[in-house]
Amino acid sequence: MPLIATLTLNPAMDLSTSTARVAPTSKLRCDLPRYDPGGGGINVARVVASLGGQAVAVYPAGGPFGDMLERMLDELDLPQRRVPIAGETRESFTVDEGDSGLQYRFVLPGPTLSAAEQRACLEAIASLQPLPGYLVLSGSFPPGVELGFYDEVVALARRIDARLVLDCSGEALRYAVAGGGIHLLKPSLSELASIAGHALDSEAEQEAAVRELVGRGAAEIVVLSLGGRGALLASQDDVERFGACEVPVRSAVGAGDSMVGAIVLALANGRDLRSAVRYGIAAGCATIMRPGTELCRREDVERLFGES
Fold this sequence. Notes:
Structural class: alpha/beta
CATH architecture: 3-Layer(aba) Sandwich
Largest sheet: 9 strands, mixed
Shape: globular
Strand order of the largest sheet: 5-4-1-8-9-10-11-12-13
CATH topology: UDP-N-acetylmuramoyl-L-alanine:D-glutamate ligase
Oligomer: single chain
Helix content: 25-40%
Radius of gyration: 19 Å
CATH superfamily: Ribokinase
C-alpha cells in the first residue's frame, strides 16, 4: 500500500465545548473542553490511519500548543514529522449551543512561517522513507506563505513521483487551479463558485464548472463536496452525482477532511474511482455523526459504505 503523506501548513489544537446559549456580554458557563489535533492535513492523516492505511503527517509547530499537538499525535500512534518553528501553533475552538442546536466555529490565523521554515516542510517530505505515493496539501496558508509556495509543492510531488491531492480555499485555491499539477481536487460548492467567478445554483452549472476544470487540465479528478446532497465527481471519463448517507447531524467539523482521507486511501488501495468517492462520502457522513471535533469511526464508515 502506498504511503500517504499530508502537509498541514497551519495546524491547530482544536478545542470543543458546549453551553446552553451563546449571548453577548454574559459569562457563558461551558462544559469540560475536548482537545483534538487539528488542521486539514492532520485530520486527513488521522482518518487514513483510523481506516487502516499508512499515513504520515508533516506540519510546522511551535510553542505550548505545538508541543501538545505533537504529544497527542504520539498518543494516537500517528507517524509524524514535526518541523520546529519560532512562532506558536494556534488554537481553534468550537462551541455547540444546546438550546438551539447551532454550532459556532472560531478559527484563528496562526503563526507566520519564515522562508526557511517553509523549505524545511518540503525537505521533511522529500526525506520520507519510503517516499509517499500520494501527497495531500490540505488547509489554509498561514501568514508568511506566498502563493508561489504551491509551485514548490507541485515540483516536489513531481520529483518524488507522488500524486498531489489538494483541498484548500481562497486565493491559494484559485492560484493552484490556474497552474494545474493536481491529481485530485476536492472543493466545496462555495469554493468552486469562487473559481468560476459566479454562483452555481443549478446542477447544470455545477457540472459545467467541474467539466471545465478537468477539460483545461487544472485537475485530473474533481470531487465537488455538496454536504447533505452528496458529491459530484468529474474525470476524463464522465461526470456523476452521488447521494449522501442519511445520518443524524451533530457536528460538521472535519467532515471534508474525512472525505478526502477516505477517498485517497481507497485509491491507494486500488479501488476504482466511483467506489473511492462512495467511501469518502461514507467517511464524511460518519464524521458528521460525531460531536464537536471528533472524527469518524471505522465501524461507522464501513457500515455506511456497505449501505450506500
